[in-house]
Specification:
The structure is a single chain. By secondary structure, this protein is α/β, with parallel strands linked by helices. The chain has 15 helices and 15 strands. The strands form three sheets. It has a seven-stranded mixed β-sheet with strand order 12-11-10-9-13-14-15, sandwiched between helices. Helix 3 runs antiparallel to helix 4 (158-172), helix 5 packs across helix 8 and helix 6 runs antiparallel to helix 7. The longest helix has 15 residues, at 158-172.
C-alpha cells in the first residue's frame, strides 16, 4: 500500500475555514500565513495563490481547530493580527468540507487575442456557461506577441464546447482552441506541419517559377485548381511542366530564398526539448523539405520530388504524389513510426489540401488559413507567429523563453 492510500481526506461535512489574503506581494507572505496557522494544528485542504501586477491573492482552505485546543475565534483573531502587521487584508469564511466535485466533462480552453478585449472575454465566458460548463480556473499563458489565457472548464463535453466556441470565436475575431483534459495532453506527441505558407512564408512552386519566368502561368494554373477546375495532382503536373529546362543550380537558389515563418524555429526547438517529434508534409518538393529537415532537426519530412536529368529539371515529378489524401496518410505513417497514437498528434496547415490531415489528427490547427479550412479544423490561429501553437498545448511563454535561453 502506498503512503497516499493511508491518508484519509476530510469528510465533506467537516468544518473548514477559507482564509483569504490580499495585498502587496513580497517575500515571506505564504510562509508567514502558514506559520501562523501552524499554531492551531489545522490541516491544509487546498491552496490557491496568484500574483497580478504585484498584488497577491492567497487562499487557504484549512480544517477548523479541533475541540480541546484553541478556538476558531482565537484563530481568526491571530490571523487578522498577523495580516495587519503585514499590511494585508484578510477574510475568513466558515463552511464545511472541500470544493464541490468538478462536473463530468473537462476541457482546456485556450484563447488568443491580439489584443484580448474585455468584450471578447465576456462573450467567451458566457458561451462556456451557455453550454452548461463551469470555469474552474483561469491562467495566463502569454502576454506577447499575443495575449493567451487558458480556462479550465468542467461540466460539458469537449466536442459540445468546441462547436459552440468555434462559432463565437469567428464572430469575435479571436482564436479559441478546445482540447480534452487528461493525461494524454501531457503525453509525448507528434506535430506534423504543412510547409508552404505554414512553416515557411513562401509557395515553393512560385519561387521556382520566378527563375523560369513563368510566374503568371503558374498563378493561372493555381487559380484554376482553386476554382475546382483541376484537382491537386493535375495542377501539380501542369505547374511543374512549366519548369522544364531549368538548371538544377536553381535548387540552391530557391533554398536560399525560403523564408521561415516568424516563430518557426522557436516552435520546433521548444517541441524537441519537450520530447515531441516533429515532421513536415508538403505538396511542394523534397529538394526544399530535405534541406529544411536538416537545418531544423526535423524527425520526418515528405514531399513530391522534382525529376532532374543531366543537370536539368525535366518538368516531371517522381514517386508517390503528396496530395490531400497523401498528407493524411503520411500523418498516420509518421505516427506509427514514432509510436504515438493518432489521438496524441497535432497537425498544422493552411490550405484545403491539409483538411484530411487536420481532421485525422488529435488536434488540427488551421494556421492563417482559408475560411473553409478554419471552419473545418478543430481550432484556428490567425496571427503571424507560428510558435503560438505552443499555447494551444498549454506551454507558457515563460517556459518557451526558458527552453530557448541558451540557443
Amino acid at each position: 500500500m502506498s503512503a497516499s492510500e493511508n491518508v484519509v481526506p476530510a469528510a465533506d461535512d467537516d468544518p473548514t475555514l477559507l482564509v483569504k489574503i490580499f495585498g502587496k506581494d513580497r517575500p515571506g507572505i505564504t510562509a508567514g500565513l502558514f506559520d501562523t496557522l501552524a499554531a492551531f494544528a489545522v490541516d491544509v485542504v487546498d491552496i490557491e495563490q496568484v500574483v497580478t501586477r504585484g498584488r497577491i491573492t492567497l487562499c487557504a482552505l484549512v480544517t477548523a481547530p479541533k475541540g480541546g485546543g484553541a478556538t476558531e475565534g482565537e484563530l481568526r483573531s491571530t490571523v487578522h493580527s498577523w495580516a495587519d502587521s503585514m499590511r494585508l487584508q484578510t477574510e475568513i469564511i466558515s463552511g464545511r468540507g472541500d470544493n464541490r466535485p468538478r462536473g463530468v466533462g473537462r476541457s482546456h480552453v485556450t484563447v488568443l487575442g491580439h489584443p484580448l478585449t474585455a468584450e471578447s472575454t465576456a462573450s467567451i465566458a458566457a458561451c462556456i456557461t451557455g453550454t452548461g460548463g463551469n470555469i474552474d480556473r483561469i491562467f495566463r499563458l502569454a502576454k506577447y506577441p499575443v495575449t493567451a489565457v487558458e480556462f479550465a472548464v468542467s461540466g460539458t463535453e469537449t466536442e459540445t464546447l468546441r462547436t459552440a466556441l468555434a462559432l463565437e470565436a469567428a464572430k469575435l475575431g479571436v482564436d479559441v482552441a478546445v482540447v480534452a483534459a487528461g493525461l494524454q495532453r501531457r503525453a509525448q506527441r507528434l506535430v506534423v506541419m504543412d510547409v508552404d505558407s505554414t512553416l515557411i512564408q513562401d509557395e515553393v512552386i512560385e519561387l521556382f517559377a520566378a527563375h523560369a519566368g513563368c510566374e503568371a502561368e503558374v498563378a493561372e494554373v493555381t487559380a484554376r485548381a482553386m476554382r475546382g477546375e483541376l484537382d491537386f495532382e493535375e495542377s501539380l503536373h501542369a505547374r511543374v511542366a512549366l519548369l522544364a529546362g531549368l538548371d538544377e543550380s536553381v535548387v540552391d537558389k530557391v533554398r536560399a530564398e525560403v523564408r521561415l515563418t516568424p516563430g518557426a524555429r522557436t516552435l520546433i526547438r521548444t517541441l524537441k526539448k519537450l520530447g515531441f517529434q516533429v515532421g513536415v508534409v508538403s505538396g511542394g518538393f523534397t529538394q526544399v523539405t530535405d534541406d529544411l529537415r536538416e537545418r531544423l532537426g526535423l524527425d520526418f519530412a515528405s514531399a513530391n520530388t522534382l525529376e532532374i536529368v543531366d543537370g536539368k529539371l525535366t518538368g516531371r515529378v517522381t514517386g508517390e504524389i503528396v496530395d490531400r489524401a497523401g498528407k493524411a496518410r503520411l500523418l498516420r505513417r509518421f505516427a506509427a513510426e514514432a509510436g504515438v497514437p493518432l489521438a496524441q498528434t497535432v497537425a498544422v496547415g493552411d490550405g484545403a489540401n491539409d483538411l484530411d490531415m487536420l481532421n485525422a489528427a488529435g488536434l488540427g490547427v488551421a494556421f492563417n488559413a482559408k475560411p473553409v479550412v478554419r471552419e473545418a479544423a478543430h481550432t484556428a490561429v490567425n496571427v503571424p507567429f507560428l510558435d503560438t501553437v505552443l499555447y494551444l498545448l498549454g506551454v507558457t511563454r515563460e517556459e518557451v523563453e526558458a527552453a530557448n535561453t541558451h540557443e
